[in-house]
Automatic annotation (TrEMBL):
All copies of domain Transposase IS110-like N-terminal, residue ranges: 6-145
The Transposase IS116/IS110/IS902 C-terminal domain, residue ranges: 209-292
Alphabetical list of InterPro entries matching this protein: Transp_IS110-like_N, Transpos_IS110, Transposase_20
Protein name (Swiss-Prot/TrEMBL): IS110 family transposase
Species this protein is from: Shewanella eurypsychrophilus
Domain of life: Bacteria
Length: 344
């Protein structure tokens, strides 16, 4: 199957497989997952391109195990290439056509180990969202009865006192419902701590993550995120640290026309906003410390000057940008990070 390109459109129950060779469609048929797995095992080596989606990593790993050149391609690019109406056949054909574009950028996908790490991160993120939602609802419901909770503190003491107060007029049904919601909140808090402990153990046991945690503002969570991004190119194959930083959304949006380039903001709509959020949060913590004391390293000297000129938020984004670029260099060159102390 030399020079054969196979475009694959993945779905839960069926898989559309479009086989092309020298810009001609040989077949474009639907398979169930077991049929496609058997086809991968029995077919000669070919270039198989999957539209990046939730199951693409599994199929890419399986195709690699059978000797195929398996790749993933952006779903947005496929949508731009697709002709006529959106059907499985047209999608599979568009995947194969997109693969033939000059200088096309593929999504490298993840290894099995990286999928495990991503699953822990995603479970933790969902638990954090649920915890915030439950906490906000409890705060709002108590406020309707004139019971105020600390704006930035924990709601635990206030809710416990409310449940124990027999003179507040709450009926038994409301008291039981509030107790159930509160117990669910406590369960989420405990679960988040367990997820954070699991990520910390993973980061400490991984040599690359330990390198990354030497960077300013990088803890276990940021180290795992950077490891997943840079070690295999989660959002693309990066040639430079600048490409990786731009992919996370830490560089200004550029608009060029007529030989004139204009730089805007870093943009609100990016693919992985949660990664950017935790990176900037870590950088903000570093900025808060540097602002209150004398710089100890050359990077802190640069950072403090930037804080004085542009403010905390801009400095935090700039530090997060530098962190991603430095992390790329550390992993690409297999080096250790050493901060340069200020000359006395």
């Amino acid at each position: 199957m030399k020079n054969t390109i196979v475009g694959v459109d993945l779905a839960k129950d069926v898989i559309q497989v479009c086989i092309t060779k020298r810009n001609k469609v040989l077949s474009n048929k639907e398979m169930i997952p077991s049929e496609f797995s058997a086809w991968l095992a029995t077919s000669n080596s070919a270039t198989i391109v999957f539209e990046a989606c939730s199951t693409a990593n599994h199929w890419q790993q399986l195709a690699h195990s059978y000797g195929h050149d398996a790749r993933q391609i952006s779903a947005k690019l496929v949508a731009n290439i697709r002709q006529n109406q959106k059907t499985d056949k047209n999608d599979a054909l568009a995947v194969a056509q997109a693969c033939s574009l000059p200088e096309v950028k593929f999504v490298s996908g993840k290894t099995f180990k990286q999928q495990e790490l991503q699953s822990i991160v995603r479970i933790k993120e969902l638990s954090v969202k649920h915890k915030v939602a439950v906490e906000n609802q409890i705060r709002a419901l108590l406020l309707e009865f004139g019971i105020r909770t600390p704006t930035k503190g924990s709601i635990v003491n206030v809710v416990e006192l409310t449940l124990e107060d027999a003179d507040n007029g709450f009926c038994d049904e409301l008291r039981d419902s509030l107790a159930i919601a509160f117990n669910g909140y406590l369960d989420l808090v405990g679960a988040i701590k367990k997820y954070e402990s699991a990520l910390e153990r993973v980061a400490n046991s991984n040599a690359d993550c330990r390198k990354l945690m030497a960077l300013e503002g990088v803890g276990p969570m940021n180290a795992v995120n950077l490891y997943m991004l840079l070690s295999c190119g989660e959002m693309g194959t990066f040639r430079t640290g600048k490409d990786a930083s731009a992919c996370v959304g830490l560089t200004p949006i550029q608009h060029s026309t007529g030989g004139k380039a204009k730089l805007g903001s870093i943009g609100k709509h990016i693919r992985n906003h949660s990664m950017r959020s935790v990176l900037v949060s870590g950088a903000m913590a570093v900025c808060s410390q540097v602002k209150r004391r004398v710089p100890r390293t050359t990077k802190e000297t640069w950072l403090k000057g930037l804080i004085e000129r542009r403010g905390m938020r801009c400095a935090a984004v700039a530090l997060a940008n530098k962190t991603v670029r430095t992390a790329f260099s550390l992993l690409a060159n297999d080096t250790e990070y050493k901060a340069i102390p200020v000359a006395s």
